[in-house]
Amino acid sequence: MATEQATETAIFPKTEELAPRRFPLDGTAFVRWVVLIVTTVVALFPMYWLFANAFTPILATPPLTPIIIPAFRLDNFERLLVNNKFYLNWMVNSLVVAFAVTAFHAVFDTLAGYAFAKKRFPGRNLFFVLILSTLMIPIHVTFIPLYIINRQLGLIDSLWALILPGTAWVFGIFLMRQYIQTLPSELEDAARIDGCSEFGVFRHVIFPLSRPAIAALAIFTFVRSWNDFLWPVIALNKPQNYTLTVGVANLQGEFMTDWGIIFSGAALAALPMIVFFLFFQKYFLEGVRMGALKG
Amino acid sequence: MTRVRTFLKKYGWSYLFILPSLATFALFTLVPVVWSFIISFQKYSLVRGGTWVTPIYANYAQAFTMLNGIFVASIRNTLLYTVFTVTANIFLGLILASLIQPLSHRLRTFFRAAYYLPAVTSALIIGLTWAYIFNAQWGFATYLTRALGLPPVRWLSDPDIALWSITLSAVLTIPATAIVLYSAAMGSIPQEYYEAAELDGASPIQRWWSITVPLLKSTTLYLVVLYTIASFEVFERIYVMVPSGVGNSTQTIVTQIYANGFKEFDFGIASAQAFVLFAMIAAIAVAQFRALRSDVEY
Asked: How distant is the Cα of A252 from the closest Cα of chain B, in angstroms?
């Protein structure tokens, strides 16, 4: 138990405690299990049903009696990839955008977070407050000027229109500042005495020490980018340029009567994040706790 | 000159370190926000640029009166959706977090993961799964009403029902954030409080209601704000469940901003509507700030 707790709280300050022995409602009441099991089924059913349909050959309309047990066949997925010549493009586009945005934040949020955490310079607080104060602004306010700017730059319908605004998410700066503040300053001083330049201190001391927080930040950023929909649907017009979410939203218009294709397209778009979650669960739940992810 | 050099030597690196982040932030957040505010008082054409409208508040006035007050209807719909969704999320989050709290570490992790799993996929795909469940022909909800011998319900096409179906889909999407945050907050309530209450002979439900729930106040407040803002911004779910809308009955603030901005290309109206949303969210944030000032410490 002790090691479990240690790994769970290694990255961020400790918040998760052992279950209090005396927490109220702690009897093993029958009602508790009924509620927990029913809500778990409710939570998982829509996604499960999508996958059950996707893995059962459906050539036209799904049967009126719902498919609960899938046939575990890949027919729909084969037809999706044969009949939809852009599906793989969409996946690649989503990957390119997510990787580019993630790489930017991993490097530059750490740099900025370091400066805000450890350095003293005129305007530091002003800049930081300015950045934080915009976290509350609904992103929808920015879409119209962003559209105009991207059009003037000729970037509409290119992945740049998604990557560039994607770099403006400021949560990562805040996250990295909080983390780097907890690092001891002696290591930086030692590196300076050894002759490291300021950038050398960042590269050889701060960046390696920040790896756990950078990993978390990278995961949140990747998921956000991968799942983004409203701005991509505005900024992309031609089917070959769509990201996965935009493409999947349009499948129904294209394959009106072939529900097998539609189900498999949606399921395949959801799958990478589900697998990702099963591997990096701890980071996701930490992200929720810190307000980087919503659900 | 030497003064500039000393200044740069002392602070140059710091400015260089924040420069990339600050530049993208300025270019893709700050400038757009200010510019959008300006456009909300303009008639904007992609070819000719912006010209001021007269009177200066004309876009705001028109936003509220155009098309028989569709925007007023969308605000009403958004608020209805928000009230039910937020209430259900808080209630469900509190109950479920309380129920998993006494379980073993392993079981708590399992349930939190199970509740959170659907939320890792995009809002768009969550919306799609619900669109399938409410499909008029083969949807699971349609199957259930048929199996129970009830008259058919036009879940997503009846103007009196569609908004409620969408709200139901949001209510039944288990609020993973609330469970995670409540769980964390419950873990930090001191044991002695419960022990003292137990000695006083308080029943488990009494202990929960008069110790746990009040001490979670600041978490509750944070979650109310978080879910209220998220509900104000509801879009994907509606975009896929009722693609062309059911008259005015399923329009929300963001679907209106999207329609006016990027279907009609009336940037002035869309910007004005976006700032109405901004004002609503700011009001919620201010209310949160005020409530937090009178918060309990423990």
From this structure: 10
Delimit the domains of chain A by residue range: 87-259+272-290
- Residue ranges of A 36-65 with Cβ closer than 8 A to chain B: 36, 39-40, 42-47, 49-50, 53, 61-65
Q: Are B101 and B204 in contact (CB under 8 A)?
A: no
Highest mean pLDDT pick, A180-184, B185-189, B233-237: B233-237
Smallest Cα distance from A23 to chain B, Å: 6
Mutation test of the interface with chain B: which of A107, A230, A262, choosing the one with the most B Cβ atoms within 10 A?
Answer: A230
**Domain contains B166:** yes
Q: Within 13 Å and on the Cβ side, how many CA atoms surround B118?
A: 30
Tokens of B140: 């699971």
Residue B262 touches partner A, C-beta closer than 8 Å: yes
Chain B nearest CA to A96, separation (Å): 17
Neighbours of A255 (CB within 10 A): 17
Say whether A249 and B230 touch across the interface (CB within 8 A).
Answer: no
pTM of structure: 0.87
Burial annotation A85-119 (CB, 10 A radius, 16+ → b, else e): ebbebbbebbbebbebbbebbbebbbbbbbbbbbb
Could you tell me if residue B48 is inside a domain?
no
The count of structural domains within chain B is 1
Single-letter amino acid, residue B196: A
Range of the domain at B271: 70-293
d(CA B26, CA A145): 13
What mean pLDDT is predicted for residues A271-294?
A: 82
Residue A15 pLDDT: 44
Domain at B179, CATH number: 1.10.3720.10
Q: How many Cα atoms within 13 Å fall on the side-chain side of residue A167? A: 21
- Over residues B46-86, the pLDDT tens digits come to 888 888 888 888 889 888 888 778 899 999 999 999 999 99
State the pLDDT at residue B193. Answer: 82
B226–A294 C-beta distance less than 8 A: yes
- For residue B102, what are the contacts with CB-CB under 8 A and spacing of at least 6? A19, A20, A23, A25, A26
Per the prediction, chain A carries an average pLDDT of: 84
Q: Does domain A87-259+272-290 have CATH number 1.10.3720.10?
A: yes
Cα(A235)–Cα(A193) distance, integer angstroms: 50
What are φ and ψ of residue B44, in 5° steps? -115, 130
Distance CA A228, CA B122 (A): 7
Q: What percent of chain B has pLDDT over 70?
A: 97
Q: Which residue of B has its CA nearest to A135?
A: B29
The C-alpha atoms of residue B89 and residue B96 are separated, in whole angstroms, by: 10
Residue of A nearest to B198 (CA): A22
B49 strand-pairing partners: B45
Confidence grade of residue A274 (pLDDT, cut at 50, 70, 90): very high
pLDDT at residue A4 tops 70 = no
Whether residue B193 lies inside any domain: the answer is yes
**Residue B40 within a domain:** no
pLDDT at A23 (0 to 100):
63
Could you write out the three-class secondary structure of B190-233?
CHHHHHHHHHCCCCHHHHHHHHHHHHCHHHHHHHHHHHHHHHHC
The CA distance from A26 to the nearest CA of chain B, in Å, is 5
